[in-house]
Amino acid sequence: MAIAVGGMLHIAVVTPDLDRMAAFYTGLFGAEVVKDLSLTTPVFGDGVGVPGATARTVHLRLPGASTVVELTQYAAHHPVADPRAPANAPGLRHLALRVDDIGAAAGELRARGHEVVGGPVEVDRPAAARGTRFLYFRDPDGNLVELIEPPSRTAAAGGPDDARTRPAGAGSPTEAESEGNRT
Prior knowledge:
This protein is of the alpha+beta class. The chain contains 5 helices and 9 strands, in the order βαβαβββαβββαβα.
């Protein structure tokens, strides 16, 4: 029997500097702090499987989102082998946020000095994703964040069903390009 799920409540990000990360998400995305908690009871440590652990956690609500971002700073952190793991490393890898204008978002990220690691690009195949524009960048702790501009209904309709992306703003592929990229 499946477990009945009533929705997603939060995405947790553990950070060594909660104030810096909270300032990043509130400053760049206009997130609102909805909770700021000190977690110091034995129940907390037992519940997260780290007996004796204590932490401070902040819940941030991003504009237009129902799921919150939970930032947590533990009093003692477990060492991480590679905190800047690439997008294809196993495990929870990125947080994705919807934006209205990927070009403007990319410009704002660069103006603020944030590392954009990929994109922006525009998906031209498969047909179901055609017109989606996205980029990846890193937050102050090195976590990957994806910004996605959904396609318009017109851009997403019809077409071949194989995966390909083009730099955002690039024109449609020529027929020769399309033929040369089929496998």
